[in-house]
Amino acid sequence: MLRVIIADDERLIRLTLRSMIEDSSFNIQIVAEAKDGTELLQYIEEHHPDLVFVDIRMPGLSGLEAMEQGKGLSPHTQWVVLTGFSDFNYARHALRLQAFDYLLKPVSPEELEATLSKVLLALETKVNQLSNHFETAVNSLFHRTRSIEEIGTKYHLQDYHFLITLFDIDSYLPEQEQTKLRFEWIHKLKEAYRTQVQFAMLENAISFVTLPNGDLAQVIGWRKSAEKRAKLQIPHIQQILTQEIQQFQTDSCIVTGFQCDHEMDLFDLEEGIIKLAEFLPLRRLLPSGRLWMENEAASFAARPNYVVISEQVDKLSKLAHLQDYFQYANELTQLVPMIQTLNQHDPYAIRNLREFLCITLGCELDASQQVDQWITSLQRVQESRLAEKSQTELSQSDLIQRVVNYVNTNYMNDIGIGQIAHDIDVTPNYLSSLFHKKTGQKFMKYLTHIRMMKAKELFLTKPGLKVQQVAEQVGYYSTRHFTKLFQEQFDCYPSEIHQKMNPKQS
């Protein structure tokens, strides 16, 4: 939504311009009208609009003077200058102040439409560039291809505050269907934010990031200079999330969100994600289809056995999707007494657990049944899948081989489990769990190992290469960060490899 201020000392001009803007085909909100330059500056400081229409000649502070001062208050605002005087000196002055356009009054609807179209196109181009840089920076942070210091400097993210939300989409549907659900969810949220949230277009960015373990994170960043206005939007964002989560839920799908209860700086972001992720398993025992704040989740985590039982159920669900019958049976046996104890103290949690198991495992657990009777149904779920296991094992082995091949071919690029999962049409959570099960190590650790091995090979075969060159060739943008990982892998620094290969130079 384009947020606009109209500034003109003539009331009729303001009314006419408002009427034409509201009749245009664009999604525009007029946030204020000013009758002089001083009032305009007050509104600019309050609203930080995307676009200002300003009359050159106004009493007191002129339009051009207001424009000059307003740029310091809101650097990202675009300006269209209006005047009834066709004097080139005014136009030249306005252009020196980097006005986007210059229109003579009275403005025709056709001229206004053309100008609005150009402004929107220019702003959308800048917004896309900002979004791409923001997403690249956040991905680099979580996948550790750049150091946090470099991210802050290169992308200016030290100038931002962040709000984190983690999502889980639970379903018994096949992986391909779950992949579609994941993308539908992201698209639905993006569209809701685009049409409903009143952020200034260039003061914020929203990115959806697949974390190394496959979880989906929403990262909203806003410039610290826009802190006051951004905080006014947070309750609205939470309202949108709650509404979209409820609408997305079906008999075969549950969406749960966990949101941090405070904004973070860049240097707190990774730790904040880790802390928030600890609450994700709790969704198994909580009412479904909700956005949970961090402090709410913490209160449930403090209840006796909530964390232990939820983590056990979480493990059981993953094993069911991985079709690991033996481990599934073991975990189910351990879970039974825990559920029985919980049933005595917290029947509401048992009700939530029943709903969750039905949707994520595709089983039927009657609310009138005793907990003991659930076990038979849960055993049958895995037994019915056991008949398909032979073909599935082949499929799983093929998936892992495709991941290995992908890494061996693309290790030098900025890749992650989310990108690979998308390419082979499964969910990142499933692929992350499957990779860990089949290889015994987490995907990010494997990717780092391959990159370090390739780096060592380059040092040994091409001793003339500098550390920075090798780092870039294996997918790292920060020499310092690469050196740290290399030292952790081989217990020596890259420079020591050079000395071993060229002892006469040492």
UniProtKB/TrEMBL annotation:
Its main location: cytoplasm. InterPro entries: CheY-like_superfamily, Homeodomain-like_sf, HptR, HTH_AraC, Sig_transdc_resp-reg_receiver. SMART domains: HTH_ARAC, REC. The keyword Nucleotide-binding does not apply. Residues 3-120 form the Response regulatory domain. It is found in: Cytoplasm. Keywords: Cytoplasm, DNA-binding, Phosphoprotein, Transcription, Transcription regulation, Two-component regulatory system. This is Two-component system, response regulator YesN. It comes from Paenibacillus segetis. The lineage of its organism: Bacteria, Bacillati, Bacillota, Bacilli, Bacillales.
